[in-house]
Amino acid sequence: MHFRPFNAAGLSGAALFFVFLPPILAADSSAPPDSDVQQLPALTVNATATTVPDRYQLPSTVQAVTSTQIDDTINAVDVEDALKYEPDLFLRKRNDGDNQAVLATRDWGVNSSARSLVYADGVLLSALIANNNTIGAPRWGMVAPQEIQAINVIYGPYAAAYPGNSLGAVVEISTRMPDHLETYLSTTESWQDFSLYSTRNTYDVNETALAVGDRIGKWSFWITASNEDSNSQPLLFVTASSPPAGTTGGYVAWNKLGQQADVLGASGIQDADLLTTTVKLAYDLTPHIRATYELGLWDTKYDATVQSYLRDASGLPTFAGVSGFTSGEYDWIEDHVMQSLTLRSSGAGDWDWSIVGSDYDFDRDTEDSPSSVASTGTAFSTAGKVALLSGTGWKTLDAKAAWHPDGQNGGQELSFGAHFDEYQLVNPTYNTPNWQSVQAYSSLSTEGVGDTATEALWVQDAWRFAPQWKLTVGGRYEWWRAFDGINVNGGTTIAQPDESASDFSPKAALAWSVAPNWTLSVLAGNAHRYPTAGELYQLVSTGAIYTSPNPNLKPEDDWSEELRAERKFKDGLVRFSVFEDNTLDALVSQYAPLLPGSSTNYQYFMNVGWIRNRGAEIYADKDNVLLPGLEFSGSVTYVDSRILADEGEGQFTTAVGKKAPYVPMWRGTLAVTYRPTLHLAWTVAGRYEGQMYSTVDNTDVNPNAFGGFDEFFVLDTHVNWNFSRHWALSGGVDNLLNRKYFLYHPFPQRTAMTELKFTY
Predict the structure, then answer these.
(1) Low-confidence stretches of the chain (pLDDT beneath 70)
(2) Domain containing 455: what range?
(3) d(CA 197, CA 238)
(4) Which contiguous run of DSSP H or E holds residue 633?
(5) Smallest Cα–Cα separation from 398: which of 172, 168, 559, 554?
(6) Continuous H helices in 38-85
(7) Residue 304 has what DSSP assignment?
(8) How many CB atoms are located within 10 Å of the residue 725 CB?
(9) Is the pTM of this model over 0.85?
(10) Total domains present in the chain
């Protein structure tokens, strides 16, 4: 293959109260004066130890959302909700309290968790142990909402400081340390009215969060805790080609391929209890050097149940021996521990530098489920399986520095750094005689273990060689290896071969200030995304789906180019971009039988020869539109994502010329916020995503079905009312129009939310 890169139904009464009452009160002269409202600061960069962000220049497009914007515009139950309306992003969050919330970017969709990066103050939150929607989800809970100062989204693999996983986007969460005694207490409630097939219920979520922080001399600290009790809608449905003999109930339906797949019941109805605790301690070694230690504890428990729609001859509920009900009944316990240590300068003088180390440990991670169901009634077998991830984890270390020979705002910056990481997957599944009270394991069913490690060196030079011109060039060299891989399936044990690769990834960007407030930029970058331990070694089963590991996967080789024009205004901007990504040996997962005619599906991980993503994006935001206090932001993204060659595995020769999986052609966001006073903000926002395929040969032609990926438009409302100096009340409705859609799972229907918050 010759590769040529591209050139040039009923709302909650409480929700109605919170949505419509505050605008009325805004006109009330008895409302608290503006001077009593405590306004949260926007992101600022200070050359002191109080705020010590990285100051490295980035050639990429950077989109920011501040803590004030999060409070005023978003129904935020979990930290990741802050990204709901960011351009080119989609947050795959199935329900409040979801531990599998992953990001999709403009040219890589869901099921691509390792094609984006999430950091908090330089500490990696992305779980690069896998590239999926389960254990690959970022560890969002390691950041407390009250810590957040701003969130920056960095688009594309154009900065040498980031590994090849940045080929989608990088999310950098900036937090703050208190400079005086602060306390925080909030309580959040949400209610989802869900109705689909024979499942009709209201699922509620309650979250209580508290925090205390202070600065005492050179020391500062945050201690935070959050408890969330979350009840979700069904995440799965049980289907079969026909209903079992002798039963009634169920619904005639078709799957995403257009084949008959009658719906026999709902499963994966979760009751979750999540407790997250963080302790952050900082010490100012000098006025411009700070050491920070953080400890995060993530303790969760999920109890999932099922609901059968089937009835026997007596009219009683029955499972009728349908094994699909087993995958939706489980107990899942996670006790995870994360630690990080950071030493960072604050940007004084000609040098900036930082050293960041982190350790994430699955101290305990067990999922217990039954092996089978009864042929009569709704009983599960006593015997079952226990899937373990205990012992899984990773370590990272990053050191970087920047030299400003002409000062912080001078014409040149030379930055460089080194990186190390190691990921260890430990994933055995055992048979047990009693899955609800596990005392002993009878035998090993399957096992997938293995390690990956990466070392890297990088350098980047940003040079303003003329008043209107800035050139940024850089490169990253990486050494990757995979080792100690073992797979067990029943009585078969295979020691997988070690793999290694080393690659250089060049980067370049040229920016031209065409006129005052106008900038034209051209960017190009190469990125190598290495297979994760999960893609190489994980061997698990979920109902009738088995994950088949592939230890011979090759790294993805991505070339990205972008042409960007940006016009800034006094209180807004417009940005237009055209882009193209060409990815060789793209790593794609598919569900298909290993043998023709088999009813058991396997998840394959394979290299696809060449995927091209070509598209355009326009983004705009403006304050004081038509009248003071009216703010607007919105984006539209078009992507033509094509599979151009299948030279890698050759498993799906009919895929050439088809759309790449999980990438919609159109995506859009729109948010309008009105601030009639400083203490009130009222927002209406929408999110749109077009239909996408989940198969490489685009045979899933029936997207509005369980397992399919449907087109959707979701409209949300939000109100935030600071009714005194220390108290704020917010609320709103997500999915106001009650759009019912599937993204494999059924997604939340109309959901009302309220929050009461106290800060001091």
Answers:
(1) 1-55, 348, 408-409, 438-439, 540-548, 592-603, 647-652
(2) 13-759
(3) 12
(4) strand 630-645
(5) 172
(6) 67-73
(7) E
(8) 14
(9) yes
(10) 1
